[in-house]
Each structure stands twice: as C-alpha cells, then as structure tokens.
Amino acid sequence: MSTLKESISILQQEIASLSLELAADAEQFRLKYLSKKGLIPGLFDQFKQISADERKETGMLLNKLKQFAEDRWKDGLSLKGDNSASNAKKLDYSAPGIEFQQGSRHPLSIVANEIHEIFSRIGFTVAEGPEIEDDWHNFSALNFPVEHPARDMQDTFFVDKDPDIALRTHTSSVQVRMMENNEPPLRMIMPGRVYRNEAISARAHCFFHQVEGLYVDENVSFADLKQTLLHFSRELFGAETKIRLRPSYFPFTEPSAEMDISCTVCKGSGCNICKYSGWVEILGCGMVHSNVLKNCNIDPEKYTGFAFGMGIERIAILLYKVNDLRYFSQNDLRFLKQFKTGW
Ligand code: 2U9
Predict the structure, then answer these.
(1) 284 alpha carbon to ligand 1 midpoint, in Å?
(2) How remote is the CA of residue 186 from the centroid of ligand 1, in Å?
(3) Among 154, 170, 255, 266, which residue's Cα sits nearest to residue 209?
(4) What local confidence, expressed as pLDDT, does residue 108 receive?
(5) Which atom of ligand 1 lies nearest, measured to the CA of 141?
(6) Where are the domains of the chain?
(7) Which H or E run includes 121?
(8) Closest atom of ligand 1 relative to the 283 alpha carbon
(9) Residues in contact with 37: Cβ distance below 8 Å, sequence separation at least 6, in sequence order
C-alpha cells in the first residue's frame, strides 16, 4: 500500500472514532481536517505527486474521505441545531447569545379567554360557527323584520351581492344553529369575529369580536339572567362591581335590556370614562323571543331562555383603558407588548 493510501485509511479510522458533542468540537474538527491548512487538503497536495497508475484508485479514496469528513462535520453541527454548514463556517462561537424574544397573547384573546373561563366555571360550553352566513341564520330566524336596517347593503357586507349570503353581523347565528340541532337544556357561549359595514374610526370598525351567551331550559327566568350577569361582572371586574339593567329593544329578545356596571375607573364617583354618570354600558341581554324559539323548533310553552351579547373590544377598552379601537387590529408591537399577563 502506498503511504498516501495508508494515510487516507488512518485518517478515515481516526475521523470515524471521533465524537463531536459540542459546537467547539465541530469547529476544532473543521480546523484540523477540512480547513485550507488541514490534514485532508494536505493529502490532496500529496496526491498531485503520485504516479499516474495509482491516481484513479487513490483519487477515489481521497474524495470519499473528504465527503465522509464533511458529513461528520455537518452532523456535528446539526446536533447543535445548526443545519447551515456553510454559514456555520463564519460563526463566532465565542459571541454572546441572542436574547430570546418572548411573544405575548393579543389583548382581545386575553379578555376572550377570561370570559370563557368565567362561564365555563358555571357550566357553559363553547360553540363556534361560520363567519359567512345565510339570511335565515343571521336575520330571519332571529325575528328581524324584512325591512330592518341591518339587512341593508349599507350596514351589512353581502357576499357577491347575493342578498342571501353575508358576513355574519353577530354570533347569534351560531345560537340558532345550536338550537336547531340540539335539544334543551342548552348552556353555551359563542365567541367570534363579526362584521358591520361601518367607516373605520377610533370608536367603530368594520369588524369586531363578540361573546354571546345562551341558556335554554325549563323555568329559566329573568332572575337567572340577572344573577348570572352579576356573577360574571364581579368575576371579571372585581367583587365590588354593581350592575344595573335598563329596558331596551332587540328583535330576538323580549323583554330586552342593556346592562351597565359601576365605573371601574372612578368606582361610581364620576370620571370621563363614565361621562360623570358612574355607570358604563357593557352588554345587551334579554329573554329569548318566543318567535326565535319556534323558528328553531323549540316549544316556547315548555322552554324559556335568556341570552346576552357583548363586544370584546369594549370590555378590553374598559379593562386596559385603551382610547382607540384601531390599536386592536394594527399589530403594532409597541401596543401589543404591553399585555404580558393573563395567559
Ligand atoms: C339567540 C337569541 C338571542 C343575544 C343578544 C344582545 C342582546 C346585544 C350587542 C352587544 C354589543 C351586540 O356586540 S354588540 O354590538 N348584543 O345587545 N345580544 S341579546 O341574543 C340572542 C342571541 C341568539 C338565538
């Protein structure tokens, strides 16, 4: 065997026996065997001097050795989680580490999760449904009269100008689907994105997020609604929170009400958040209209139900004192980074 062939064989065995466990091992390996002045390029120098009849076989062995060494080096690097062998050549292993950038939940997710947890602790499940809805689930089943302004092109985004298909304007359409497909008792909340054809400003957006709730069973009363919402408000805004209900109107509930909580900022003494009234409106609610129950094949003589709906942005604005709705959809990290808690 020629001395070059012997050297190739010795190096092959040496390289096979090495263990590359640290980033520094891989770099030392590269310097010793693969770098310009390393052992393998040295063998290529010797190769230039061997006789023509030995060239073919020795050349093959030498190329194999080089390939083997490169593979071992790359394996050593990937063990450290670095697959870019060519870039790795330029890495400075003594440089200080790069700080890990930790993300955070979006404030609307924090609030939605909190609402979800409060209701799941008292037996409500979560349901979701499509954002593109038909007229029946978004309007007709919910007792909206044919001439109701929400059905207008001005207020609702219709898909392909088809008057039967629109982006849902509330998550109530999910409740309709749930009632159509399930027997009472039903106790669920429906979180989700909804769409309204509005000009974007600090106080309005063309999409926002809602959580609605529904409880249908025998003997469900307005008192149950009131106590559930009082419990919810105390859990979310603090044990001292008071609520008040004002009569209102929605096509899908009768009677209907809007609910205020005592101002979380001034505790009722008056500030510009509550416009010096001491109260802030947070949601709408009521007893499910008997027409809605009938539309979903539920017998209103046997069953009653309550429902409520709130905008998540509105709650987040109150909890975090945000003064412009647009912050929630701009993905500005200077805004989002402030919400590190409440996973
Ligand atoms: C069914 C029956 C009744 C859900 C309700 C409200 C009152 C309400 C608004 C709050 C602010 C919408 O986000 S908002 O603009 N919602 O005031 N929602 S009762 O009632 C239902 C839902 C489904 C089948």
Answers:
(1) 6
(2) 16
(3) 170
(4) 96
(5) 24
(6) 3-77, 107-339
(7) helix 107-121
(8) 10
(9) none
Ligand 1: centre distance to CA 194 (Å): 12
Q: Is the pLDDT of residue 203 over 90?
A: no
235 vs 238: CA distance, rounded Å: 6
Span from the CA of 140 to the centroid of ligand 1 (angstroms): 15
Other CB atoms within 10 Å distance of the CB of residue 1: 8
The pLDDT value recorded for residue 89 is: 59
Residue 107 has pLDDT above 90, yes or no: yes
Q: What sign for the dihedral angle of Cα 179, 182, 187, 190?
A: negative
Residue nearest to atom 15 of ligand 1 (CA): 311
- Asked whether the CA dihedral 201, 206, 209, 213 is positive or negative, the reply is positive
Which of ligand 1's atoms lies nearest the C-alpha of 253?
3
CATH of 107-339, one of 1.25.40.10, 3.20.20.330, 3.30.930.10, 3.40.1160.10: 3.30.930.10
Measured distance CA(68)–CA(276) in Å, rounded = 79
Amino acid letter, 318: L
List residues near ligand 1 (CB under 6 A): 170, 172, 175-176, 210, 212, 214, 250, 252-253, 283-286, 288, 292, 307-311
Q: What residues are paired with 211 via a beta bridge?
A: 191, 310
